Amino acid sequence: MESFKLFLKSIVPLSDQEFEKYSPYFKTRTLARNSYFAEIGKTSHEAAFIKKGLLRTYYINEKSEEVTSCFCAENNLTASYKSFISQLPSELSIQAVEDTELITISYNDLQILYQKSALWQNIGRSIAERQYMVMEQYASVLCNESAKEKYMRMLEEQPAVINKASVNDIASYLGITRRTLSRIRKEITQ
Amino acid sequence: MESFKLFLKSIVPLSDQEFEKYSPYFKTRTLARNSYFAEIGKTSHEAAFIKKGLLRTYYINEKSEEVTSCFCAENNLTASYKSFISQLPSELSIQAVEDTELITISYNDLQILYQKSALWQNIGRSIAERQYMVMEQYASVLCNESAKEKYMRMLEEQPAVINKASVNDIASYLGITRRTLSRIRKEITQ
DNA sequence: CAGCAAAAAGGACAAATGTCCTCGAATTTA
DNA sequence: TAAATTCGAGGACATTTGTCCTTTTTGCTG
């Protein structure tokens, strides 16, 4: 739980006692490689902090292709947010790229925390704001760069993902084809 | 204020009395065409609901080009969120595309609302969640569709913006060049 | 309303990226 | 461990998009 505590402390002021008080609401759980944390069509009742491992979020587009929209690594949060927030069926699947350890909270327990304490209201809002800013960065930067620029940025910012994820998934995450990614990789190694 | 009340009601349950109670914290203000609601380098002390008009958000990239990251139309919120939330200098400018009427709240007043009431904590969190989901949608679309698909989607989802904004700004919003946009427009009219 | 400036359209060519395919290496499964 | 399957690299060509430029249109100002 230590890493999760540090994560929360990086977002809001939080004493160790306060953390201890609420930690029973959080469960630890492992997810084997290739198994799912969320699935398309099923309502997502949990959000998670990733203690160790890597998760991939994807959806299916109109051409029935998997499109990877996110890689979530250690010390980050993950959830099918739309489904979790609205408690409606998920449009996303979240799958473990490697064996992964999670710290989770259920939707119901989170609502209890929100009712119990202004602190958690604050944490909830700050996390939503944070996720928004991360997504804004992703959107505005990634979408105005060339294939090569996007790959170079990923190499810089998410080197671990490059090593663990498949070429297919990395390409769809960057919005390019496998062929283009292969060309870029060749170019770089020279 | 009526449209703003309806907007809030679409996000959280809210009685008319509750709305009246807090409405003094909100100010109405107009913004002339081409003038700024937020400017790069200046800390943004206000967030706004757009009663009427259209705003364009942009930043300057490494090549010193304006990149339009967002068009915000009537009945939506706008802010240089990162700057507003963190109270640090803005990386974005927000400019009126046409004469615009805003309903604004200051950072300080919003903090007061958060302290005063769990309702506003809830509204704040729900809005952050909502903005996140909008941004997520924008990101995945922009990165995985062709120039023509992106333009067609914009025609469908934001027809008013197409009519009001310049070709330059629409192109940079879609992450394509003017030339490509011109080609697509010609193709469509045939 | 003429003249000017800014914005938009579009021609010609170059570069980037996609499509479809094959081949060999790596990984899984019987 | 052998066979089967998946995965990644890359060739050949097509298509899309970008760059640089000129021409046309639009809108503003005196």
Describe the protein in words:
Two copies of one chain form a homodimer. Chain A has 190 residues and is an alpha+beta fold. Chain A has a domain at 2-117: Sandwich (Jelly Rolls), CATH 2.60.120.10. Helix content of chain A is 48%, strand content 23%. Chain A has a four-stranded antiparallel sheet with strand order 1-8-3-6. In chain A, strands 2-7-4-5 form a four-stranded antiparallel sheet. In chain A, a hairpin with a 5-residue loop joins β4 (54-60) and β5. Chain A is globular. The N and C termini of chain A lie far apart (44 Å). The model of chain A has no long low-confidence stretch (mean pLDDT 93). At the A-B interface, α3 and α5 of A face α3 and α5 of B. Chain A binds a DNA duplex (30 and 30 nucleotides) through α9. Chains A, B: This is Crp/Fnr family transcriptional regulator. Chains A, B: It comes from Flavobacterium quisquiliarum.
How many strand elements of chain A?
8
Q: Name the helicity range of chain A.
A: 40-55%
Beta-strand share of residues of chain A: 15-25%
In the predicted model, the low-confidence regions of chain A spanning at least 5 consecutive residues are: none
**Helical/strand content category of chain A:** alpha+beta
Oligomer: homodimer
Per CATH, which architecture of one domain in chain A?
A: Sandwich
How does the overall form of chain A come out from the CA principal axes? globular
The CATH class of one domain in chain A is Mainly Beta
Organism (chains A, B): Flavobacterium quisquiliarum
InterPro entries (chains A, B): cNMP-bd_dom_sf (IPR018490), RmlC-like_jellyroll (IPR014710)
Protein name (chains A, B): Crp/Fnr family transcriptional regulator
